Amino acid sequence: MSSITKKERDFHHLSKPWNVVFNLIAGIFAFLCVFPFLFVVIISFTDEGVLARDGYKLIPEKWSLGAYRYVFESGDMLLRSYGVTIFVTVIGTIVSLLFIAFYAYAISRKSFRYRNFFAFFAFFTMLFNGGLVPTYIIVTQFLGLKDSIWALILPLAVNAFYIMILRTFYSTSVPDAIIESGKIDGAGEFRIFLTLVLPLSLPGLATIALFSTLGYWNDWFNALLYIDNPNLVPLQSMLMRIETSMQFILQNSQNSSLSLEALRSMPQDTSRMAMVVLATGPIIFAYPFFQRYFIQGLTVGAVKE
Amino acid sequence: MKKTSGFIKNIINNKVMLLMVLPGALWFLFFSYLPMMGAVIAFKEYRFSRDGFWASIIDSKWVGMDNFKFLFTTNDAYIITRNTLLYNGAFIVLGLILSVLMAIVLSEIVNKKLAKVYQTGMFLPYFLSWVVVGYFAFSFLSSERGMLNQVMEFMGMESVQWYSEKKYWPFILIFVYLWKAVGYNSVVYLAAIMGIDKSLYEAAMIDGASKFQQIRNITLPLLNPIITIMTLLAIGKIFYADFGLFYQVPRNSGTLYSVTNVIDTYVYQGLKTTGEIGMSTAAGLYQSVVGFVLVMTSNYIVRKYNKDSALF
């Protein structure tokens, strides 16, 4: 990072032509990464009729806000899904942070007699798992979470990898002396954790919280497995469902006259793209500000105890 | 007698810490260890029982290795194993080359602010779900409206029914994977490059080494340990495919299965579509066991190479 301040280090600089080439390589790749999103935004602002005739165009003949108007007017589905996603993301992040922060702290403490056992108990799950089918059966038949909002929260709540990252973080950034001093002052373990350890480990917790938030916001897999109730469908999963319900109606539209009406009321191409934009918008706007925490998490993860 | 009271004393002495691990430990029990035990249904003919979960497992008839035999006598086992290994192999090799290349390119760009902007752009796909990426791919590949067919028609070529032509999909899937992963993976290598002692470059400069000689003789050799470790860890996971990529991007198109079906999608279909519970549990267990052996082996090699970087 200090390299930014040392402007005089010219020996380290590329020659001008090569600098241009390197800028082009990175610039083009970066553009490629952003372009599909811009394209979908353009499609969502295209007039439906023009789109049906010309296909997806970079510069459509006619722009329109129709898709967004449609989405907001018939926006029941979107609003409900937004609600589900926000609820799941907020509660999920809190639950997951609590579980992970306590677990990681306990196994980071040398005075905890069973730390090795519980460290292994968590760690082993990174090496071996029972597979999708037994997990599905346990969640639906044993825990009874089918069509429950907790089926969207609990399966993602704990992750051994985050525990390992956070344990490393505690043991490198919270000196034993601080904990000892707390003990001498007569504070109990919980107080030590809350008043001494927590403030010191905020950057680590923030990283885990952001990973967790992103995980919940983008999750569709658990909804695909466990949710049939249309009132509990999160955003990402709703995006999948409007797709399949469209296909279903299209496939069956020759057979029945009823479905034609249903077809007309379904969101069309532009509205679907508008929903994609609305579902990703918050992340696109937020991530540049949080990027460095993700980078920190990635690089901390590479260093272990 | 003395031993048990010692044990109880230990529990009491550690009660706060035990309370702290309790929620997480219960989670691991329910979401990891019970499913591991539940994997016995790979050796059973699973029948759902009204008396609940335990009854279902216990009452189901033992069939020994029949599920595995059935799985491996079909062509499916071969296809899904081949696809999983080949795709992941391509992801590892091409992903490594591109990520290291991008990291070096970003680290050498003179204007650091611009480099930061590029990096932010490249990082974007990491934050998107596979559902959204599936829509992105559709906006290019849709046969009537997609941009790719429009461009091809414009250039006088015939348009392609992308979602039913098998031969293009290995390239499409590899492209989409790289698009999503390279920006993210290059972060790790970029951090490693930033950590290289600058005086090494200074010395090389005094000796008259060109920028490219510096990259070849300083940057790459010093990246070597982290490259080796990242690659070995990826090899440890080579039996696990990214479900989202293979499920969302080809839009579950049946005609493409022979080139898009991987172990994870196969297990999912067995569970949710075809209802072959026993066989798909068997496929999942096959994945877990081989995956376990691979992780242990690759970790063993990492340990030999650099003890600090091993997973355990």
Automatic annotation (TrEMBL), chain A:
Transmembrane ranges?
A: 20-45, 82-105, 117-143, 149-170, 190-217, 273-290
UniProt xrefs under SUPFAM superfamilies: MetI-like (SSF161098)
Name all ABC transmembrane type-1 domain ranges. 82-279
Q: Which UniProt keywords apply?
A: Cell membrane, Membrane, Transmembrane, Transmembrane helix, Transport
Where is this protein localized, as stated in its record?
Cell membrane
Matching entries from InterPro entries are given as:
MetI-like, MetI-like_sf
BP term (GO), one:
transmembrane transport
Q: Write down any Gene Ontology CC term.
A: plasma membrane
Q: How does it sit in the membrane?
A: Multi-pass membrane protein
Identify the PROSITE patterns for this entry: ABC_TM1
**CDD domains for the chain:** TM_PBP2
The keyword Transmembrane belongs to this UniProt entry's keyword annotation? yes
Primary site of residence:
membrane
Q: Which Pfam families match?
A: BPD_transp_1
Q: Which domain of life is it from?
A: Bacteria
Protein family per UniProt: Belongs to the binding-protein-dependent transport system permease family.
The protein, known as: ABC transporter permease
From TrEMBL, chain B:
CDD domains, alphabetically?
TM_PBP2
- Give the PANTHER family listed for this entry: BLL4140 PROTEIN
Tell me, what is an example of a GO biological process annotation in this record?
transmembrane transport
Taxonomic source organism: Paenibacillus albidus
GO terms for cellular component: plasma membrane
Q: Which UniProt keywords apply?
A: Cell membrane, Membrane, Transmembrane, Transmembrane helix, Transport
Q: Where in the cell is it found?
A: Cell membrane
Q: How does it sit in the membrane?
A: Multi-pass membrane protein
Q: Which SUPFAM superfamilies match?
A: MetI-like (SSF161098)
ABC transmembrane type-1 domain: residues covered: 81-298
Q: What is this protein called?
A: Sugar ABC transporter permease
Q: Where, by residue number, does the polypeptide cross the bilayer? A: 21-43, 85-110, 122-141, 168-196, 217-240, 284-302
Record family assignment: Belongs to the binding-protein-dependent transport system permease family.
